[in-house]
Amino acid sequence: MKIYRFEHERSILYGVLKEDLLHPLSGSIFGTFRVEKRGVPISRVRLLPPVKPGKIICIGRNYREHSREMGNPVPEEPLIFLKPPSAIIGPGETILSPAVSQRVDYEGELAVVIKRAARRLAQHEDIGEFVLGYTCFNDVTARDLQVKDVQFTRAKSFDTFAPVGPCIAAAVDPSRLRIKTFLNGKLRQSASTRNMIFPVPYLVRYISHVMTLCPGDIISTGTPEGVGPMSPGDRVDVQIEGIGTLSNTVSKDESEMEPRGDKTRLKPEKRRRT
Ligand code: MG
User: Fold this and answer.
1) Using one digit for the tens of pLDDT, what is the confidence trace for 76-115?
2) Does domain 56-256 have CATH number 3.90.850.10?
3) Which residues line ion ligand 1, judged by CB < 5 Å?
4) I need a surface site. Which of 104, 146, 205, 211 has the fewest CB within 10 A?
5) Which of 18, 104, 3 is nearest to 48 (CA)?
């Protein structure tokens, strides 16, 4: 089952895809829901990020070959960091490359969507009932700022740096999925999730001992080797077997330091003459 979130005739709905039709859901995707009989052609809706997470937990260096290409040792325990939910964009939306960075990279990743609250899961506890499904994620990173800063927050947190979608695939086994990233149609990353250093069940249990995982939270499980820069005008596709393709384009952020939806510029105030 593939769950989509979309806008249709000014309503925001969840729906299940059957052939080319999205059948709206009533109820909660985290609990019980009913699927309506009448569907809407997927070509006639605007797809949205499939979930609105309270938090996004990312894993760094979870593939050996990627650790090597970055010149880092293989971690002995998962390296976790947070990305703000304000960075989320959906399929087809534009990644904005900030003026302050000279190098913005794609990182294609498999992401987990949490179904029910998980706290301090036992070592061998089955994670099945805590996971709603899986989606594609692009952990967009201002690589130069990541190197410059002591930690990852600024480099990973610009608005639009968390493309997610196109759907939540509920019935996939995350242990052996082919994940590919294309830049302008050219293959740049291709790996199997079975090459993860820490597999999905381990990550869910591990993180649940640090913070309570809540319905809708996203865990992005790290990128394989082959990361690289994107430039304005580029198109990036993250494709995962059994889920689909998340496509986004890149533009230069022309708004300087002006936050979205706020007219107040953050430029330094002019000094008054005294
Ligand atoms: Mg990453």
Assistant:
1) 999 999 999 999 999 999 999 999 999 999 999 999 999 9
2) yes
3) 107, 139, 223
4) 211
5) 3
